Amino acid sequence: MAFIYELPNKVEIAEVFLNHEEELLNIIPNEFVLSMDHMKKDIQPIHATTLSASLNRFKNVKKAELLIGKQFPAEHPLLSNGEEFLSEVKDIFEKLLPVYTLSFKYM
């Protein structure tokens, strides 16, 4: 899931996320990762420290992005099985849907 820097109401969404950090930590599975820039391969595990710092950066830095997802190494066996991979992608979407829904609480 990507919240890009051009996102309207980016600051308000970041504030909602900051006010619901504990909920986000409960929603987002431990094996998911964070990234702050879709152009870089820099990722971080999701835990209270990285989430808080990432959310604050997303709120305060104009060009900051917030990307949340699951990363698969190129050799992961799931990537060679189309049906299993699609099933996993659907599962990821379902797990992240509450985060997406939470992003609308600023309205």
TrEMBL record:
InterPro entries: UPF0637, UPF0637_domain_sf. This is DUF1054 family protein. It comes from Paracerasibacillus soli.
